[in-house]
Amino acid sequence: MELLTTVEMGEADRLAGARGAAGADLMESAGLAVADRVVAMLQGRPVTVVAGTGNNGGDGFVAARLLQSRGHAVRLLLVGDRGKLKGDAAAAAGRWQGPVEAATPERLGNTPGVIVDALFGAGLDRPVEGLPRAMIEAMNASGAPVVAVDLPSGINGTTGTVMGAAVEAVHTVTFFRLKPGHVLLPGRLHCGDLTVADIGIPADVLAEIKPRAFLNRPALWSGVFPVPKPEGHKYGRGHAVVVSGGLSFGGAARLAARGALRAGAGLATLATPREALAVQAAANLAIMVRPVDGAEELRGFLSDTRHNAMVLGPGGGVGAPMRAQVLAALASEAAVVLDADALTSFADSADDLFSAIGKRAGRAVILTPHSGEFDRLFKEIKKNLKVIGKLDQARAAARLSGAVVLFKGADTVVAAPDGRTSIADNAPPYLATAGAGDVLAGMIAGLLAQHMPAFEAASAAVWLHGEAAAAFGPGLISEDLPDALPAVYRRLFAALGAASPGPRKTL
Ligand SMILES: NC(=O)C1=CN([C@@H]2O[C@H](COP(=O)(O)OP(=O)(O)OC[C@H]3O[C@@H](n4cnc5c(N)ncnc54)[C@H](O)[C@@H]3O)[C@@H](O)[C@H]2O)[C@@H](O)CC1
Ligand SMILES: [K+]
């Protein structure tokens, strides 16, 4: 599903108008969707609408009128002067029969029934202070359930950030498409449940808007997902290589290699320093183990182009030897995933990394920083006050580095250098556990080994990782993740209509 920035949503509004949809009709449909949602939770309680003077407030006036016309008790508190209402919002206010009370925290009272938050939506453009802020805080302190119109007031629809203070809604009714701020943190946590209402904006406006951000769901990448074919063989499914750390640092690479195999790579090999060879050989069954010390040997190992995807970083150590191995990997034909220590090793020489990526002429590179690693590698982006929010930061990092950047977190963003981005919302909290990132890096390599394109492979791996964790449930440790994948694959393949045919029955 496309995610529309607030600017793109304004464009959708304009294009809908150009195709004959009246603004007043869109507002009426928006208010109706809110009213329907509120009715479903009222249980005889009164409604208090807190409206602002923009179109978000206009939606609030429509909802107030429709709720009153259905016989519900409705109060309307306006934040700001009535004279500021313009256009469709002024018309909607004109059709509201009840009194318009000047909003104060006291008037909101302690038992306002269900609150409709129609203070700010897409038009929020600065931090909230003064009376609007006091009303947001009063709504949160009231203990009443809040239904937010379009966005919880105070949440930036494009970045998901809290601009000073923000409403904590139990339900948010938004229009046409979700916005990034509904999915990114902390915005997502303020929304409660979500309804996306059709308000009459024709879907074909999207062809003109060309949105670049998407909710991370199988529909985004299933068209290029490597579903195994009955006539396929393991060599067709690629060979993932994970570079191991030394004697007591090999576990991370084992996790990654297991992730790669479970994700469907035909073969997986640990390229390990000789000092750890015996341990790695003893600790693995399906995963092969080969001695590879230092950058030169890695270069030689990768000259066999059947080794077509690799992971560097987990447990690998920070410093010059890691940098040399990364540069050797980037000079090879293999698709490369750089994680953990491989990223931190370039904290003071990021340009060297980016220029090596630039020489790869389109061969896949995926960087998988968590926020600390991101800050170290992309210092300039973090310092740039104009690049606000995780979506734009990931995009800027992808543009700067020339790689697909997977910016981890509970709202993992994957950004491609061409601006395409996915945002995930399916990671359960217990996925934040030691080694989970190593498994993810391996899963990406497993998909790359099967020739999945980089942006889609990274997005798919993030989604699968979240689903595997959710399928296993609380108490998860990273070792459980690869083994939770088969059940997720069964579900995914069934949904794609690609269930494995299994052995043929002969009667
Ligand atoms: N775009 C569309 O297609 C549709 C939009 N609709 C509604 O219209 C909304 C957007 O309306 P608007 O663009 O009028 O914007 P809003 O109603 O969100 O707010 C705009 C007003 O708030 C002021 N403002 C912004 N930040 C402030 C702050 N921190 N403190 C005090 N004042 C602040 C602005 O100066 C402006 O006057 C959407 O969220 C949605 O609810 C709906 O009516 C349906 C159709
Ligand atoms: K709102």
Description:
The chain has 507 residues and is of the alpha/beta class. 43% of the residues lie in helices and 15% in strands. It has helices spanning 6-18, 23-42, 55-69, 87-94, 105-108, 130-141, 180-183, 187-191, 205-209, 218-221, 251-262, 277-283, 294-302, 320-330, 340-344, 350-358, 371-377, 379-383, 390-401, 436-449, 454-472, 480-495, and strands at residues 2-3, 47-51, 74-78, 100-102, 114-118, 146-149, 171-175, 193-197, 213-215, 239-243, 267-272, 288-291, 307-312, 335-338, 365-367, 404-407, 413-415, 421-423. α12 (277-283) links the parallel β11 and β12. The two termini are 45 Å apart. The structure holds ligand NAX and potassium ion (K). Potassium ion (K) is lined by residues 56, 117-121, 148-151, 153. Ligand NAX binds next to α1, α2 and α3.
List the SSEs and their pairings.
Elements: E1 2-3, H1 6-18, H2 23-42, E2 47-51, H3 55-69, E3 74-78, H4 87-94, E4 100-102, H5 105-108, E5 114-118, H6 130-141, E6 146-149, E7 171-175, H7 180-183, H8 187-191, E8 193-197, H9 205-209, E9 213-215, H10 218-221, E10 239-243, H11 251-262, E11 267-272, H12 277-283, E12 288-291, H13 294-302, E13 307-312, H14 320-330, E14 335-338, H15 340-344, H16 350-358, E15 365-367, H17 371-377, H18 379-383, H19 390-401, E16 404-407, E17 413-415, E18 421-423, H20 436-449, H21 454-472, H22 480-495
Parallel strand pairs: 2-3, 2-5, 3-4, 5-6, 6-7, 7-8, 9-18, 10-11, 10-13, 11-12, 13-14, 14-15, 15-16
Antiparallel strand pairs: 1-9, 16-17, 17-18
